[in-house]
Amino acid sequence: MIDVIERLASADPVASAPYEHPDLTTMTARITAHRPARPGQLLRVFRLRMAAAVSATTLVMVGAIAILQSLAPGLTVLALGPVGKFATAVTGAPDATMLVSARYHFIAGPAIDSAASSAPIFALSVPGNAAVEAARIANAFSVTGATLGQHDIGASVVVANGSGASVRYQVTAGMAQWTYANGTQAPPRVVNANRTSSGFTLTPAGPTFVGAAQRYLDRLGFNYDVAPPLVSWTSDPNLPVTAQPPLDRQVITFDISVAGTPTDLSVSFMFDPSGKLLWATGPDFGESSSTVYPLSSPRSAIAALDSQQSGSATTNVTLMSGQLSLRPFELADGTEWLLPTYIFSTLASGPPSKWWVVALDPRYLIPGAVPTSGRLTDGPVNY
Amino acid sequence: MGSSPDDRFARLVREHSPAVGNYLARRLYPLSRADLDDLVEETFLVIWRRLDQVPSDAELPWTIGVARNVLRNARRSQQRRRRFESTLVPRADDPSAEDYVIADTGVRDALAHLSEDDREILLLSAWDGLDTKALATVLDTTTNAAAVRLTRAQSRFRDAFAASDVR
């Protein structure tokens, strides 16, 4: 009889069609065109960049740029990362974020402003010593055990104590992500809001653990600002698919804002019904500088959103309102920045559809493989 | 006689890109197949930037470790965007990445009863062919701990398979 482990091995989904890159030579050439950083080089580049940013800030008065006839002196044209196309939406998968497709023709509603303005972009940085920062964050969760692993694969650090609680700290570009987990607690699952939850029992209204989440947040001591929390419910992500468990796990989410502008970043805490913290995650970053860049007008941005489609449009979408939001982008040089985007809403009857597009004046942006627009659908649903 | 960084990197790409691509392809969901080549490139871009840190005696697990982090970041990035349109609902609506690619329903059902950690180490061993030393490198742990974790995960998988209705 075949051993079940062998049966597992034979279930390997790629066994019948192993991966083969279509053009290794070109990929290798593309990568090696960027010389690998030598020790200290990254810091020097960073310092130079900061010096340039500070100079630029002194040259450009906040809000002074309305309409530019030419590029403003001192402002660097930003080249978006050539890799990371994974940031595009999923197609053909359940609940996929939809790509801006040929099916839509975007029209600016009467309230959409046609005046261009300006807004700061923010260079992001992370604490210099990942191990020290990981230990500091772990301490906020009373995890004071040994560092289990620390190596330079994306600067990943794990701190764990004897009871199974752990904090993982992972650095990429100018941002780090920390995750606390109690034992083998899996993160809560996130799916589309319009998916039914029938068959599951929502926990009755009761006390929330917002206060506890706020205390953890205070202990973590990050410099970023957060909005009032959102409360959602989920089931135990560790339970099997067939169990259909009740929605008895509470998730408290704080949206992060920078300099008064909302971002698409957040900090989340998941509690069990007794209020025990099971899992938490959030970013760790600082804004090392900001530089004011000219923006497209909201009306021009909608025209850009419209022009990024191909083919003939079949559905008119009138965008009635818009707001600025910040979103992290990795640039081609490996640095990470928060760039302003517009989020437009149809405000139609029923669930509004929302669309985002980079708000920077396009003369200051060299597109990469990272998408510069996309669709958002409904906002968070809170039970 | 040592090879140049370019030569070493080209060899790493040549020798390990199939394993990296296979590793990512098995765990791609909810990302799409169209993203696969980009994730492979992202992985090797990180390796190029850190070429002098790649241990010569553990190139494959180190490379898989980078791919693992790249995949996590990609999912996290996508989750960040999807948060605008999302709420939190039970896992029953959201199987693991592996659930989408396993045709053997008995195996799929047994895996669904395991924790994320058990499933990861089990599949790194069974699908990616990593031994305990390599598992330890990928999972940031000791060889001994990796061996214990793997044995326990295999045991729990056998139990789940035996208890499954679908065999």
Structure description:
The complex is a heterodimer of chains A (383) and B (167). Chain A has helices at residues 4-10, 24-32, 41-59, 130-140, 210-220, 298-307; strands at 78-79, 104-108, 118-125, 147-151, 156-160, 165-172, 175-182, 190-192, 225-226, 230-234, 249-258, 261-271, 277-284, 286-294, 315-319, 321-330, 336-345, 354-358, 365-366, 373-376. Chain A is α+β, with helices and mostly antiparallel strands and 383 residues long. In chain A, strand 4 and strand 5 (156-160) form a beta hairpin. The N and C termini of chain A lie far apart (50 Å). In chain A, strands 4, 5, 6, 7, 9, 10, 11, 12 and 13 form a nine-stranded antiparallel beta sheet that branches. In chain A, strands 3, 14, 16, 17, 18 and 20 form a six-stranded antiparallel beta sheet that branches. A two-stranded parallel ribbon of chain A has the order 1-19. With 167 residues, chain B is mostly helical. Chain B has two domains: 1-86, Orthogonal Bundle (Rna Polymerase Sigma Factor, Chain: A), CATH 1.10.1740; 90-167, Winged helix-like DNA-binding domain superfamily/Winged helix DNA-binding domain (Arc Repressor Mutant, subunit A, Orthogonal Bundle), CATH 1.10.10. In chain B, helix 1 runs antiparallel to helix 2, helix 1 crosses helix 3 (59-82) and helix 4 (105-112) crosses helix 7. Chain B is globular. Chains A and B meet through helix 1, helix 2, strand 4, strand 8 and strand 10 of A and helix 1, helix 2, helix 3, strand 1 and helix 4 of B.
